[in-house]
Specification:
about 180 residues; mainly alpha; two-stranded antiparallel ribbon
Length: about 180
């Protein structure tokens, strides 16, 4: 009897899954902040915190992949001029922006007065008890996240423009085959 072999998924498949997970998580964190979820009870805060742990893990793995292998995307042949020039910097801004969001979360834990646990179970930074620094890092973390949201909205608009105007199937590249008929 032949033993089943495990193969690693193709990089493009992993990126499709990454996008599929990151888009709803990013929207969740844009709309549902700790100020919104804490009054809803410990269960909702635990859910929010565990989603943050998943989000940060994906951010760090994605950044490590880009550091190791570079961007997977290349500008297509139909992409010319300004669009070709902005393609790589736009993608790198998002990847490194996500890394900085994760770093900001770590700094929030580091400067906190109490031990913060990701997912309410994983301590991720020793609490140094620096309240003024914690307030500053918290404010920067919020502005950074929403600024990254603007960049990601621009990124989405850029790829929708490519798909519609250039007809280069830019959206199909990052969508699972089951969704291609809708694109």
């Amino acid at each position: 009897m032949k033993r089943p072999t495990l193969t690693r998924p193709h990089r493009r498949t992993v990126l499709k899954w990454t996008h599929g997970l990151m888009i709803p998580l990013f929207v969740w964190f844009m709309l549902v902040t700790p100020d919104v979820v804490v009054p809803m009870g410990r269960g909702w805060f635990a859910l929010h915190s565990n989603l943050a742990l998943v989000f940060v893990s994906i951010c760090l793995l994605w950044t490590a992949d880009v550091m190791r292998r570079g961007l997977a995307s290349r500008p297509g042949p139909k992409l010319q001029g300004w669009a070709r020039a902005v393609h790589k910097p736009l993608h790198l801004t998002i990847v490194w922006g996500l890394f900085l969001v994760a770093l900001g979360g770590f700094l929030l834990g580091l400067t906190s007065v109490v031990q913060i646990k990701a997912g309410l179970w994983l301590p991720f930074a020793p609490a140094m008890g620096w309240p003024r620094a914690h307030d500053l890092v918290g404010t920067l973390h919020i502005y950074q996240f929403y600024l990254l949201g603007v960049v990601i909205a621009g990124h989405a608009a850029f790829h929708i423009w490519r798909h519609v105007r250039l007809r280069d199937n830019a959206l199909r590249i990052m969508a699972p085959k089951a969704l291609h008929r809708f694109l």
